[in-house]
Amino acid sequence: LSDAVDLALPDLADVAISLYLPGDVAIRTEHTFAMATNLVSPPGDFTARTDFAPARTADGVYLATDLEVAAREDWRALVVLGDSISDGIGSTMDAHQRWPDHLARRLLAERRLPRTAVINQGIAGNRLLHDWIGPRALARFDRDVLARPGVRHVIVQQGLNDFGIPAAFDRPAEEVSADDVIAGLKQII
Q1: Is the dihedral of CA 54, 59, 62, 65 positive or negative?
Q2: Using CA atoms, how far apart are residues 40 and 135, in angstroms rounded to an integer?
Q3: What is the mean pLDDT of residues 30-51?
Q4: DSSP 30
Q5: CA–CA distances in Å: residue 110 to residues 46, 103, 115, 116
Q6: What is the DSSP string of 71-138?
Q7: Structure pTM?
Q8: pLDDT by residue (tens digit) across 41-66?
Q9: 136, 130 contact by CB (below 8 A)
């Protein structure tokens, strides 16, 4: 965790997070398909600058796993616990066209509804019942949904990869039935 930052943000704002790593660091966490261009600086500390020429760009987010935003007491949160469909695979780079992005815009536009933030916890390749890309949804439910402040609702979009990945990646011991996936979804419920 980093120190808190006092920064007023408008709804749906883009936020840049700058990291300076003075030595070699093994990447322990990444969001490979972030669908957002990230800038990698040349060597040196560029954390206070916005005008550097990047050494390269990356499609993924590395090391930063979360950004918590303190909201007013009357706001709520809705978590999308999903796989690549929620994560945004196939959507337009840098355009915020994932379906949870569209949902967030619609909820903000509907003034009759309580103010609701959408937290996208989609992980491409994630599954409900078995670990593969990230811990399985059943294992990350507490961390990614229940531990979030202000969460009142959750949309679960999981299960498709449980059927496709075992055959596509020669993992026959992880084959599941519809009843297995239904039981997993009932466990979340």
Answers
A1: positive
A2: 28
A3: 88
A4: E
A5: 40, 11, 9, 10
A6: --TT-EEEEEEESHHHHTTTSPTTS--SHHHHHHHHHHH-TTSPPEEEEEEE-TT--SSS-BSBS-HH
A7: 0.91
A8: 899 999 988 888 999 998 888 888 88
A9: yes
